[in-house]
Amino acid sequence: MNLILLHTEADGTFSKLSLETLAATIALGAPFSVGIVGENTASAADNIATCGAAQFLTITGPEFGQGSLPGAGRHRPI
Fold first, then answer.
1. Low-confidence ranges of the chain (pLDDT < 50)
2. What would the DSSP string read from start to end of 26-67?
3. Number of other residues whose CB lies within 10 A of the CB of residue 19
4. Which of 19, 20, 59, 71 has its CA 20 to 30 A from that of 28?
């Protein structure tokens, strides 16, 4: 089974890239689970509840919000 991990935006929604990643996972046709990480994951999970995932796993809390992790927002090009 595949696992897709998605991080919510500050407003509790998914970015366009996250939704495109989910769509690509669905298109593979293999069973998958969705892991959702963010400060507030409930509304995001509700919005994709019918996507066909075998299960949903969430990690929720203020420490998982946008910019809350050390180094967040300081991406350097490779």
1. 75
2. HHH-S-EEEEEEES--HHHHHHTTTS--SEEEEEESGGGSTT
3. 15
4. 59
